[in-house]
What does this fold into?
Amino acid sequence: MERIAHTFPPVYDSNSQILILGSFPSVKSRELSFYYGHPRNRFWKLLSELLQEPLPLSIEEKKTFLLSHHIALWDVIESCEIKGSSDSSIKNVIPNDILSLTQKASIKHIYANGSKAYSLYEKYCKKDIPLPITKLPSTSPANAAFPIERLKKEWSYIFVMTKIS
It folds into this structure.
């Protein structure tokens, strides 16, 4: 176990209406200094298929992709003790200031990428943020119970329930 701090900022602008929260960056994401960097994580493939857009490859393409669809992206945890990339090993959490982000953007709804992000949000953030949150199945390769087609069905909820203006 080692104490690690989140080292890259959230992706958002004042037009962001959807906030997708992960728990904490994986080892690969920390190495790349950007979200969902593990090549087997299905996050980028999933969103590109749902939004019928080409798969963004570079960090700049990913940022542009998110912002063009009014999506903000961050993690619940600012720092914690963690072993590798294992969400189940997370201890001694310091949460990010998600309230501040929701006040700088036009967030209407928060979506948690997986159970760990959802439970961390519930424990550390929910009491201060008057926005609805929905738990979605994790895009992590460790979530083998959800093949991409099943993820697409569950995640399509974002674009059905959140009316983006």
